[in-house]
Amino acid sequence: MTLKPVRHYLQFRDLSRDEYAYLFRRTALIKARFKRYELHQPLVDRTLAMIFEKHSTRTRLSFEAGMHQLGGAAIYINTRDSQLGRGEPIEDAAQVFSRMVDLVMIRTYGHDIVERFAANSRVPVINGLTNEFHPCQVLADVFTYIEQRGDLAGRTVAWVGDANNMLYTWLQAAAILGFRIHFAGPAGYGVDLARAGFPVSEDEQACLRCFDDPAEACAGAHLVTTDVWTSMGFEAENAQRLKAFQGFMVDTGMMRRADPEALFMHCLPAHRGEEVQAEVIDGPQSVVWDEAENRLHVQKALMEFLLLGQLPD
Ligand code: CP
Ligand code: NVA
User: Looking at 222, 295, 297, 299, which residue is catalytic?
Assistant: First the structure.
């Protein structure tokens, strides 16, 4: 018997355009069933282990609730109170976890940790955020855009602020799904095309345009998005970043420059008065609560896909 190769979801580029088309259709179906209170339990008796080395509200809630709703069980492990926090090699942990559970989600610091775990795992591994990428969030964000405005292909996403794990994931999505990224961030915090270990591909570079003026980056954009100025793991730089990012808060003036139908997104948690003005995140163009909710639905489709492959409606 030939075993099917294990599929992991560590970066947005781990799935193809066609697989995303399937996943977004499947998400819509799973969400509609959930809203009608219909049971959808293809993962009865399956177990998800969730390993957290950084804080989380949405990621834990959506994976744990999602696995429960799919008929399975989820186990929360914090590196601080497991042997992972006492130096057990990640490769050994992967061997053990993947003999006991069917799926693993990891939120950690360096991306090499999820890669080393996946290389030693018999079961699919999902990246729940690393310093380098946050694919589950962009999956939810793209689905949210499609749900509210249709296909993102050919449209423009403006990113104002830090070139962080979210921005680099958006760049991968742009190359796969065919849209443009307009980036604006302060000097010293811009896109690093030669990022160590994760250089931005030529396809991704072709989707990217960088601006000094954030209002220019937002001009005509169909989606304006941002994120915290200091990501988890970079807290020591907070004071310096607060100064450097002055002038890069998404405000109503920038939203007025965008397309009249533009949406505003933020992966949350947000800091009103820093990276986004309260009037924008709490205003009519903001879809941040839909984005957060859609983490649940897209990740249910993702877990189902990684374990069972593509299913008929
Ligand atoms: N957006 C996001 O991943 O939220 P949490 O950090 O709360 O999981
Ligand atoms: N860029 C942020 C996202 C938090 C969900 C971080 O990595 O902290």
Answer: 295
